[in-house]
Amino acid sequence: MHIAVIGAGSWGTALAGVLGQKHQSVVLWARSPKLAESIRSTRENHSYLPGCKLPATVCVTDNLAVAAGDTRLIVLVTPSHAIRQTAAALAPYVSADTLIVSAAKGLELTTVKRMSEIIADELPLAAENIAVLSGPNHAEEVASGHPTATVAAARSRKVAEFVQDTFMLPFFRVYTNPDIVGVELAGALKNIIALGAGIAEGLGFGDNAKSALMTRGLAEITRLGMAMGANPLTFAGLAGIGDLIATCTSVHSRNRRAGLMLAAGKTIDEIQAETSMVVEGIRATKAAFQLAAKYKVEMPITEQMYEVLYQNKSSKHAVLELMTRGRTHEVEEVVLNNLHWQ
């Protein structure tokens, strides 16, 4: 089976390497001809994933027709803000039999739509064959063959299991889930909490603070997810708490690193200028802030992160406001109506 991986960042390159270990014809598309030539000649993505060689079964091109023509499976791995444009460019090569896997994590700022919704907008022929791949999956570890688990979500069990079978390797375990909404929201919103985790670390706080932030962050992500029709159990799984833990604690996490820089007083522009990769949490914070207002969901950590990023609030002031909020119950937003005091 010919498989096209669209996007040659760190995650796209890692997924191409995974697929190339199982399938004989994988094409990795890079937007930059210079990057494509570099990967092709060295078999390594020095810009985004240095030290990891691609198998010989992976071809590299900057020609979208070469990559996506005559393929049944397209894996979209561009940054979230480029998904709509890239999906539109793929339209000539997509039919009702094409399966699209979205491996991007984020929300579109102008519409606050999830990635699968954007893909369905631009590729209506494939709307019923869209799957989402998400979980605690740092590209560096996947490319090194470290044991990893992920989730393939789709409305159709047949589609989800096809993706599961396509990606499954002894070191890369894939679980299926019918909850596309929950899996996508979890993947996008955990980046906001990771920014906060980086801030907590940068301000010198300990494990208590980070643990509380992650737990309460998961609570507000779940709150919004339920309001949008997601299954709350999804947030207790790999795409939810699994990805949240990895992104908030790992040295590989660019969102955590951005939080450290925010704690040091750097601005969004300074942070983005210092990294060659997209910090998805910065955009996701603005989109989630809009979604919280739309669905009338309380998201205090997201609100404080929004004010730090977009209203020049100091990180220390944001932490103080979170700690001095009015008292509340821990589980009221989920199950309080089913509990009774003794």
Automatic annotation (TrEMBL):
Q: Which organism is it from?
A: uncultured Sporomusa sp
Q: Name the enzyme group at the top EC level.
A: oxidoreductase
UniProt lists the family membership as follows: Belongs to the NAD-dependent glycerol-3-phosphate dehydrogenase family.
Main location per the UniProt record: cytoplasm
Q: Which reaction does it catalyse?
A: sn-glycerol 3-phosphate + NAD(+) = dihydroxyacetone phosphate + NADH + H(+); sn-glycerol 3-phosphate + NADP(+) = dihydroxyacetone phosphate + NADPH + H(+)
Q: Which InterPro entries match?
A: 6-PGluconate_DH-like_C_sf, 6PGD_dom2, G3P_DH_NAD-dep, G3P_DH_NAD-dep_C, G3P_DH_NAD-dep_N, NAD(P)-bd_dom_sf
**UniProt pathway annotation:** Membrane lipid metabolism; glycerophospholipid metabolism
Glycerol-3-phosphate dehydrogenase NAD-dependent C-terminal domain: which residues? 179-319
Name of the protein described by the UniProt record: Glycerol-3-phosphate dehydrogenase [NAD(P)+]
What gene does the UniProt entry assign to this protein? gpsA
Q: Does the keyword Cell inner membrane apply?
A: no
What is the role of the protein in this entry? Catalyzes the reduction of the glycolytic intermediate dihydroxyacetone phosphate (DHAP) to sn-glycerol 3-phosphate (G3P), the key precursor for phospholipid synthesis.
> Which HAMAP family does this chain map to?
NAD_Glyc3P_dehydrog
Per the record, the domain of life is Bacteria
Protein keywords: Cytoplasm, Lipid biosynthesis, Lipid metabolism, NAD, NADP, Nucleotide-binding, Oxidoreductase, Phospholipid biosynthesis, Phospholipid metabolism
| A single GO cellular-component term on record | cytosol
> Record-annotated residues binding substrate?
K105, R254, N255
Active site per the UniProt annotation: K190
Q: Name one GO biological process term.
A: phospholipid biosynthetic process
Q: A Gene Ontology molecular-function term?
A: glycerol-3-phosphate dehydrogenase (NADP+) activity
Gene3D superfamilies, alphabetized: N-(1-d-carboxylethyl)-l-norvaline Dehydrogenase, domain 2, NAD(P)-binding Rossmann-like Domain
Q: What is its EC number?
A: 1.1.1.94
